[in-house]
Design a protein that fits this description.
This protein is of the alpha/beta class. The protein folds into 2 domains: 127 residues, TIM Barrel; 37 residues, no CATH class. Helix content is 44%, strand content 13%. The chain is built from 8 helices and 5 strands. The chain has a 5-stranded parallel sheet with strand order 1-2-3-4-5. It is globular.
């Protein structure tokens, strides 16, 4: 990874690796050691799909992730009276107390976006903003999203992640 970064010329802090909990359960000592090495050179890390696998809060204590990604299964019913709002709020609170950002995945409706904003979620991503696009279309999509955000008086940073699919 380090040699790939060096040969690409990309600054390490521009790379964010998404790590699933499954990776940590297989051989967590080696995984954590590798993550520590990457973090030491500036690579950012996100704990992907938090809460859907063999979740352990000890992962958050053992390794200083930069971000927790909240799985779409918690976003889907966030507005229902018996939905996931309290779980999302707990994750947002944990992340904030550890200086991590939170990204909610799978946001498809304005109501979900508003609920997540009210709960303090830092970032959101999903089809509400865009379906998957070819890499060549991303700049155009981002410009369109930024213009829409400005017109709706929504912070442009909220449009932080557009689904990307390369062909």
């Amino acid at each position: 990874m380090v040699s790939a970064l060096a040969s690409s010329g990309m600054k390490p802090n521009r790379l964010e690796l998404e790590i699933t909990e499954a990776v940590l359960t297989r051989d967590d000592d080696d995984a954590f050691a590798t993550l520590q090495q990457l973090r030491a050179i500036g690579v950012r890390t996100a704990l992907e799909d938090f809460g859907t696998g063999y979740s352990s809060l000890s992962y958050l204590q053992r390794f200083p992730f930069d971000k927790i990604k909240i799985d779409r299964c918690f976003v889907k019913d966030i507005g229902a009276c018996d939905g996931s709002a309290s779980i999302v709020q707990a994750v947002v609170n944990i992340a904030a107390s550890r200086s991590m950002t939170t990204t909610a995945e799978g946001v498809e409706t304005v109501a979900q976006r508003e609920a997540l904003r009210a709960l303090g979620c830092t970032e959101i991503q999903g089809w509400l903003f865009s379906l998957a696009r070819q890499a060549t279309e991303i700049r155009q999509v981002l410009n369109m999203q930024t213009n829409q955000a400005a017109a709706a008086k929504v912070p442009a940073l909220e449009v932080s992640a557009v689904a990307l699919r390369t062909y």
